[in-house]
Every structure is written in structure tokens, then in C-alpha cells.
Design goal:
Layout lengths: L2 H13 L8 H26 L7 H17 L4 H23 L4 H21 L1 H4 L5 E2 L10 H28 L1 H11 L1 H6 L4 H27 L1 E2 L1 H4 L3 H13 L4 H21 L4 H15 L6 H13 L1
Antiparallel strand pairs: 1-2
Helix pairs in contact: 1-7, 2-7, 2-10, 2-12, 2-13, 3-4, 3-5, 3-10, 3-12, 4-10, 7-8, 7-10, 8-10, 12-13, 13-14
Length: 313
């Protein structure tokens, strides 16, 4: 492993100590930060490694939330619900990817965006199973004696653990044959086909890995908030935010995706507190300004500093 990989894992391990010093509000922010980071790291597989602008994150998140939510409501353990949601998302993405990944550019982007709308309508229609537009109530996953801090700590550690696993898996993908094939596809897909890369298979795998952890995060979210409805978990913002986070942190970089997610949440929280009425506009303005001044993301600051030092040297 490279030095920066060790630094990244060390930083995540330190983050895992948050329950030792955090209060309920801090743990809530930590849980949201880890959830955002899972989304960003996952999107980076299809968007950063393969270069395909996917808007399907909201579809995976909603699918995971409702798959896990239905199972939790039926009395299944949280672990079983998480695994089932991830498996369904992976299998569904592989099948869907065989069709969608034959599209390119804005055609693929529009098609991936439509997936969430299709799933939203299906969820609304399956009233007996999902509650439809009335939403779905989910029982507590922990014992009735668990206090607020115990619940907050549990869901933070669960989301943090999911992020840790996602980072390790994505790291292996980067250094694997799949990662090499995706890099070839991103640079020149026609040339990649000529050297024997099975583009459709590789892109479908990237699409599946971009969804599996997001779906698991959706299940954790459902158990955490105890109530979900289609407009909440299939929110179009869940399709847009991960892209902004990755661009903010640094496209193609796992560390950049995490930094971008944490930075985005920090900006979002400050704006939400101080500009409630116009928070969306202010948030969008700040993000655009950051992207204009840091076109290669926050991770490029280090390279700029080193370049300036070398120039002065």
C-alpha cells in the first residue's frame, strides 16, 4: 500500500474514535458525514474511474432504504437487511448495467437519472408492501432499553464501518485488473476494446460497485430515522450531491471523495443554520465558487503548494 493509503486509513480510524468525545449532535453530523462519504466514494468508481456520469445514486439509496426497511418492519435483523439490500442492488445494477452501459455521454446520464423515478413509481404503487405515498414506519433496531446516546453511537459506528469497508474495497478495485480496465475505458473506450477489455462487463461491474454500498447505507439510514417515504429516499439531490462532493474533493481520488463529502456537509450545515430561507441558493453559489477556484478539487492544493515551492527553489 502507498503512503497516502495508510494516511487515509489512519484518518478513518481516528474518526472512529468520535463516540469517545462526541455528543448526540456531533454523532449525528458524523453519521451524515460517513453516509455522504459512502455515496461519494461509491460514485467515484463509475464517475471517476470509468468516466461515466451516473445519476443513479438516488435509485440505489432508495432501493436499499426500502429493501432494508421492509425487512426490518417484518422483523429481520439489521445485518440481514443490510446484506440483502447490498446483494439486490449489486444484482440489479449488473442486469441494468448490461443495458445502460451501452449508452454514452448525456444519453447514459439521462437514462441513469430515470432509474430513480421508475423505482419511485414502483414504490408508490406497492402500497401493501412499502406503504406507498404514506411512507413506511420502521421499528427500533436496538433493544427498547437503549438510550439516545447508545442509538446515536450505534448508527455512527455502523455507518463508519460501512465507509471503512467501502474504502478498502474501492482501494482493491483501483489496483486490480478491473481498475486498470476502467482507467483504459476512461481514457479511450474504443482503444480499450481493441486491446481486449470487455467494456460492457467492466462498466457493469463499476456500476454495481457504485451502488452496493450506497444501498447498504440506505438501509442504515432507514433504521436510523425509523420512517421513510419515496420523496425522501429517492430525492434527486442524492443523485447530484455525490457528484458535487467528488468534484469538490478531487475526481478519481478516494481521499478526495471523502474530503469533498466532509467539506460539503460542513458548508451545508453552516448554510442551513444561517440562511434557512435561501439555503439552497447560497449552498449552490458557494460550491460553484469553490469549483471555479479549485477545478481539480481540494486534493490539488498540495500539488499547487509543492509546485510553488519548486518554482521558488
Amino acid at each position: 500500500m502507498r503512503r497516502k493509503d495508510w494516511i487515509l486509513l489512519g484518518g478513518l480510524l481516528i474518526l472512529g474514535l468520535l463516540p469517545l468525545v462526541g455528543e448526540a449532535y456531533t454523532l449525528r453530523l458524523g453519521t451524515m458525514a460517513c453516509m455522504y462519504a459512502v455515496m461519494a466514494v461509491s460514485w467515484n468508481v463509475i464517475g471517476g474511474m470509468a468516466g461515466y456520469p451516473s445519476f443513479a445514486t438516488a435509485a440505489f439509496f432508495g432501493l436499499g432504504a426500502y429493501t432494508g426497511g421492509v425487512l426490518l418492519a417484518a422483523g429481520s435483523p439489521l445485518t440481514v437487511a443490510i446484506v440483502a439490500a447490498g446483494a439486490l442492488a449489486f444484482a440489479g445494477a449488473m442486469l441494468l448495467g448490461a443495458v445502460l452501459m451501452r449508452l454514452r455521454g448525456h444519453y447514459f446520464a439521462i437514462a441513469s437519472l430515470a432509474v430513480a423515478e421508475v423505482l419511485r413509481e414502483l414504490t408508490n404503487s406497492a402500497t401493501d408492501l412499502t406503504g406507498g405515498g404514506m411512507g413506511l414506519n420502521i421499528p427500533l433496531s436496538l433493544s427498547g432499553g437503549a438510550g439516545m446516546m447508545d442509538t446515536a453511537t450505534f448508527y455512527f459506528l455502523a455507518m463508519w464501518g460501512l465507509l471503512f469497508i467501502a474504502v478498502i474495497v474501492v482501494g482493491f478495485i483501483e489496483r486490480s485488473r478491473l481498475g486498470f480496465g476502467l482507467a483504459c475505458i476512461r481514457q479511450n473506450e474504443s482503444a480499450a476494446d481493441m486491446i481486449g477489455v470487455n467494456s460492457t462487463l467492466y462498466k457493469s461491474l463499476a456500476f454495481a460497485f457504485s451502488g452496493v454500498f450506497v444501498a447498504m447505507a440506505g438501509t442504515l439510514y432507514a433504521g436510523w430515522v425509523h420512517y421513510i417515504e419515496p420523496p425522501d429516499v429517492y430525492d434527486i439531490l442524492f443523485a447530484v450531491k455525490p457528484i458535487v462532493m467528488v468534484l469538490l474533493g478531487g475526481l478519481g481520488s478516494t481521499a478526495g471523495a471523502i474530503i469533498g463529502a466532509f467539506t460539503f456537509l460542513g458548508i451545508e450545515e453552516v448554510v442551513w443554520r444561517n440562511y434557512l430561507q435561501v439555503h439552497t441558493g447560497v449552498l449552490g453559489f458557494l460550491v460553484v465558487v469553490l469549483l471555479l477556484f479549485l477545478p481539480h478539487g481540494i486534493v490539488s492544493i498540495g500539488r499547487r503548494v509543492r509546485s510553488l515551492r519548486a518554482g521558488h527553489g
